[in-house]
Amino acid sequence: MTKSNYYELTITLNDYFVEFIADFVANIAGDGVEIGYEKIIVRSESDLTYVKDALVSLAGTLGESIDMQYILEEKENQDWIQKYKDSIEPIEAGKFYISPSWYAPKEDFIHIIINPALAFGSGHHPTTLACLQAISEYVQAHHTIIDVGCGSGILGLACKKLGATVSLCDTDPISIKNTEENFLLNKEKYDALWEGSMNKTQKTYDIVIANIIPDVLRCIAKELKMATQQYGYLVLSGILDKKEEIVLEAYKDLILEKRIQIDEWVTLIYKKDK
Q: What pLDDT band is residue 122 in, cutting at 50, 70 and 90?
């Protein structure tokens, strides 16, 4: 390959698995990952065959439960980094304006800078968007917050911008590093951050936020409820509407305060008052 060329791998799959697969790709590829509806694009000056092979192996390990189609192309270099930057649009979500660092703040909004080096957590996905709307409505400066499965740290950052005391955790070390970098980029300081899950804290919080997947929300329901203070709120997201029922069943002992649906994605806001 000449220096004027680059490789582009396009992965087509069910939108439900996009963030999971993008996270996997980000862990093995050091290059930028771009996501769209039912699509992931990876670009690099190096051959990306190894990424495709790793995904084929992963699909085999999962028993072909994730159907992925691949297109690997060698393309002429047309400043794809700038092209990628141009493809990332800022968004408004509740009180927040989320943009990459190459955009200026917007008047009357709280500015959060997220450079989308990783595929998830830039605010564009419906689950993140709904969580930001919930944070805008429910979080106050005196609140204590924990963001479980923090990803890029964007939700914790939003809470911190509102003056709250913020803890974050994630089982993925890449997410921990990304969260650290994004807090530094936004000139904010988290109050606690650790690799792992809820079992590493005995504290309770005014608001517990978990933007994960339904099966995990069901598995850790007891821990999330125990971490929520009396009369506190639990924000659950990452829920595909087809799997909403398993979450509703796991949290039926709480009061469902609000339901937000964007496309096929659902966010549930519970109040603990029993």
A: low
As a whole number of angstroms, the distance between CA 23 and CA 66 comes to 14
Q: Which residues are paired to 236 by β-bridges?
A: 210, 268
3-state class of 167 per DSSP? strand
> What are 135-181's pLDDT values in tens digits?
999 999 999 999 999 988 999 999 999 999 999 999 888 889 889 99
The answer to whether residues 144 and 219 belong to one domain is yes
**Do 155 and 96 touch, CB atoms closer than 8 A?**
no
Angle between the N-to-C axes of helices 173-185 and 154-161, in degrees from 0 to 180, rounded to the nearest 10: 30
- pTM for this predicted structure: 0.74
Look at residue 59 in the predicted model and tell me its pLDDT.
84
Radius of gyration of the chain (CA): 19
Alpha helices (H) in the chain, listed in sequence order:
18-28, 49-61, 80-87, 126-138, 154-161, 173-185, 214-219, 221-227, 244-250
Task: Give 10-52 pLDDT, tens digit per residue.
Answer: 999 988 888 788 878 877 776 667 877 889 988 888 889 999 9
CB 16 within 8 A of CB 240: yes
Our CA angle for 205, 209, 213, nearest 5°, is 140
Tell whether 100 is covered by a domain.
Answer: no
Question: Can you tell me the distance from the alpha carbon of 155 to that of 238, in angstroms, rounded to the nearest whole number?
Answer: 13
> Are 138 and 240 within one domain?
yes
Query: CATH number for the domain including 32?
Result: 3.30.70.270
Residues 6+ apart with CB under 8 A from 210: 147, 148, 149, 217, 220, 224, 234, 235, 236, 237, 238
Of 59, 86, 113, which one is at a domain's C-terminal end? 86
- The bridge status of strand 91-93 relative to strand 96-99 is antiparallel
